[in-house]
């Protein structure tokens, strides 16, 4: 795929470089939704097998794709997809989303831009849909719905959502 840079105000959205793959561990930790009043878990939680599926050997599978948002040369957010048996798993043809921004960059439209760009990449790559899991109490549920994600399943805590490309 050709390399593109997208601009959003003072932010750039571009392909993640191999040298930036280690940052996905930080963003995976940042993606853990914590309702008000809940203490953050230790960073070591990202080494749990159910979370390692998001980052282990990222870039080695043909369906791994990632974008980052940067400002002033600093990566401030990331969205990445892969086909995996995660919380948002639908089938082995549908990539699952992971997205996160550092707290100080949330609510500025950066996450929305990252998701839109990833959806466009997935569509141009021939995928039919994408999925994700989100806790029901997470403010991001409304953003996903505005973007066109629909609830396909749910459990006590989470919605499993999909997007038809």
UniProtKB/TrEMBL annotation:
Transferase as a keyword? Answer: yes
Key word Transferase present: yes
- Report the GO molecular function annotations: acyltransferase activity, transferring groups other than amino-acyl groups
Question: Could you say which residues form the signal peptide?
Answer: none
Domain called N-acetyltransferase: residue spans: 18-165
Q: Which PANTHER family match?
A: L-AMINO ACID N-ACETYLTRANSFERASE, UPF0039 PROTEIN SLL0451
Q: What is this protein called?
A: GNAT family N-acetyltransferase
């Amino acid at each position: 795929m050709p390399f593109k840079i997208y601009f959003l105000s003072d932010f750039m959205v571009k392909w993640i470089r191999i040298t930036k793959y280690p940052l996905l561990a930080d963003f995976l930790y940042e993606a853990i939704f914590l309702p008000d009043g809940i203490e953050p878990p230790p960073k070591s939680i990202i080494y749990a097998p159910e979370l390692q599926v998001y980052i282990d050997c990222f870039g080695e599978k043909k369906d791994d794709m990632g974008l980052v948002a940067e400002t002033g040369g600093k990566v401030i957010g990331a969205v990445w997809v892969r086909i995996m048996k995660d919380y948002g798993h639908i089938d082995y043809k549908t990539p699952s989303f992971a997205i996160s921004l550092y707290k100080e960059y949330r609510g500025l439209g950066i996450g929305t831009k990252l998701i839109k760009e990833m959806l466009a990449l997935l569509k141009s790559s021939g995928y039919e849909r994408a999925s994700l899991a989100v806790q029901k109490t997470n403010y991001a549920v409304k953003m996903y719905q505005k973007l066109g994600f629909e609830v396909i399943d749910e459990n006590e805590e989470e919605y499993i959502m999909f997007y038809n490309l």
